[in-house]
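Section: Multi-chain targets

For targets with more than one molecule, the full set of components is provided together so that the structure can be written out for the assembly as a whole rather than chain by chain. Components appear in the order listed by the source. The example entry contains two components.
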Amino acid sequence: EAGVTQFPSHSVIEKGQTVTLRCDPISGHDNLYWYRRVMGKEIKFLLHFVKESKQDESGMPNNRFLAERTGGTYSTLKVQPAELEDSGVYFCASSRVRASLTDTQYFGPGTRLTVL
Amino acid sequence: AQSVTQPDIHITVSEGASLELRCNYSYGATPYLFWYVQSPGQGLQLLLKYFSGDTLVQGIKGFEAEFKRSQSSFNLRKPSVHWSDAAEYFCAVGASGAGSYQLTFGKGTKLSVIP
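Its structure, encoded as tokens over all components, is:
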């Protein structure tokens, strides 16, 4: 079984540009989460999808961030326009059918975003 | 709101030595507690988790953790470290209720292993 995959693994862009990160969850996992780790800080929750619906987007930093999950499969996270403070590692995770803390969240390797 | 503190940013141990990584959490109710490990180039892998019951939890790769409510701690231990254990370790707490399933992480502890 393939794990959670993320693309690209690294992205370097200039301030003001747009970047789109992609996450493919484990097949059959209805729950998809985005997290972010800014250098030297904690991994922080951004949002949670159940299928194509946003269950919890309380961690989204501002309206420059747009997450989508059309069809309830893969998800994209767009940053537009990117700012310097958006640099960090963006992790995606997925879990099985029923949203629950007892269900393991499986993490991808992350996308390292650098904004110059 | 819940929080997690991992007081050690970097720990170095010799191969074969015992290991204890500290984790303290702040949460009003009974927490859901997790330890994840991230090896270079890999995603976070779940080592173990605690929800209820026996406070000593066994995980993968020979790791265990003990939940101590009185100390708000969930320290990770391993009796004998292997070189392949060199990685970054994250403690996390999950808050149940109100439809939230997000995890709150500590800053991580980077483990180096000396041959």
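Chain A touches chain B at residues 3-4, 31, 33, 35, 40-45, 48, 55-56, 58-59, 91, 93, 95, 99-102, 104-110 (CB under 8 Å).
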